[in-house]
Amino acid sequence: MAERISGRSEYKANADVDLSVKTIRKAEFAKRLYSLMMKKNWNQSDLARASGLGRDSISQYIRANNIPSPLNLKKMADALGVEPVELYPNYEAAAIEEETPALSFRQMPGDDEYMWVRINKKLPKAVATQIMVLMNE
């Protein structure tokens, strides 16, 4: 069971993170950020001053409403004394995932018989294999 700090779970390496997927979600980033702040006994204003970012931006990250730009991620990591990858592993893939829907279908203009299908989702191996079989028919 995770330790509790001020009503939030403390970040623990590999805890509650699906290691088969190297990206983390906004909520996991928020936990990591908050935990690192607590280790320094910092509040949001302290991190804002140390990083040069606005307190409102820090608040948005802590509440898991937004993810930082690469520059803001670097500023926060530097202020906290960690590498950006420790704060937000595989940031680029996570940012792309935020923008890419898990499943999308698009009709081909002028071709009623075909559609583009895009799947960006972790699936059980058996389901993924069935999809590959269907695609190769």
Tell me about this structure.
With 137 residues, the chain is of the alpha+beta class. It is built from seven helices and four strands. The strands form two sheets. A two-stranded antiparallel ribbon has the order 1-2. The chain has a two-stranded antiparallel sheet with strand order 3-4. A hairpin with a 2-residue loop joins strand 3 and strand 4. The longest helix is centred in the first third of the chain and has 14 residues.
Write the H/E string, N to C.
Answer: EEHHHHHHEEH
- Spans of at least 5 consecutive residues whose pLDDT stays below 50 are 1-23
Q: Main sheet, how many strands, which sense, barrel? A: 2 strands, antiparallel
- How many distinct beta strands? 4
Q: What percentage of amino acids are in beta strands?
A: 5-15%
Determine the structural class based on helices, strands and strand pairing. Answer: alpha+beta
Count of helical stretches = 7
Helix content: 40-55%
What is the end-to-end distance? 47 Å
Radius of gyration: 19 Å
Subunit arrangement of the protein:
single chain
Overall mean confidence score, pLDDT: 78
Q: Which shape, going by the Cα principal axes?
A: elongated
Strand order of the largest sheet: 1-2
